[in-house]
Task: inverse folding
């Protein structure tokens, strides 16, 4: 599977671009720097068909509306975080950047267990609240796109509208997954689920 990662926005969030065949791709989180993403898509002759959002914090959605307008890509987010696409206070843009936030004007919501198909690839939604109430991971083949739920040897913060008890249950859910997924995180480095089961102190203790 072809995955390319761009660091976008003020907090260097990972934007994962997944080649879905048939000249189509999906982007998981767009933290700003829309021009950087659009330039990459053009250079690879890829059509962005879907923008999949792991949660609604500004550092993961700041460039969504500009990219959506430029590409016509469909935007998907969990129903619990949907309001964050429209509100700079809820998504923390007002606290992160002096630049004006452009609300996302068209999007669809999903729930736990739903599937989104892009080209020949299917993404399964795994609801993993804790960082936000609508945080999710996406599963596709042997890939886990974990957003800010799970990091290499760490986890996402729970003090920005999150819930520690929910995070613990979400980590338990990820720990119980049946295979060793390649984990592509919302910030910093990729890892594997087996490595996190063994070495991540937060996951070992659930």
Result:
């Amino acid at each position: 599977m072809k995955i390319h990662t761009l660091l976008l926005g003020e907090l260097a969030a990972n934007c994962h671009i997944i080649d879905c065949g048939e000249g189509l791709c999906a982007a998981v989180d767009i933290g700003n720097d829309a021009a950087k993403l659009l330039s990459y898509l053009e250079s690879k002759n890829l059509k962005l068909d879907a923008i999949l959002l792991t949660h609604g914090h500004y550092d993961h959605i700041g460039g969504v509306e500009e990219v959506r307008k430029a590409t016509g890509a469909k935007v998907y987010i969990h129903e619990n975080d949907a309001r964050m696409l429209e509100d700079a206070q809820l998504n923390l843009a007002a606290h992160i950047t002096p630049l004006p936030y452009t609300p996302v004007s068209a999007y669809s919501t999903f729930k736990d267990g739903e599937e989104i198909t892009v080209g020949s690839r299917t993404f399964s939604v795994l609801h993993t609240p804790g960082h936000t109430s609508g945080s999710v991971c996406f599963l596709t083949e042997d890939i886990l796109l974990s957003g800010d739920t799970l990091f290499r040897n760490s986890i996402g913060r729970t003090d920005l509208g999150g819930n520690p008890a929910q995070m613990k249950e979400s980590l338990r859910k990820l720990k119980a997954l049946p295979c060793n997924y390649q984990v592509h995180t919302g910030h910093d480095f990729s890892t594997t689920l087996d490595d996190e089961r063994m070495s991540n102190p937060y996951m070992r203790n659930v």
Observations:
- The radius of gyration is 16 Å.
- Helices lie at 34-43, 58-61, 64-71, 93-96, 164-175, 193-199, 201-204.
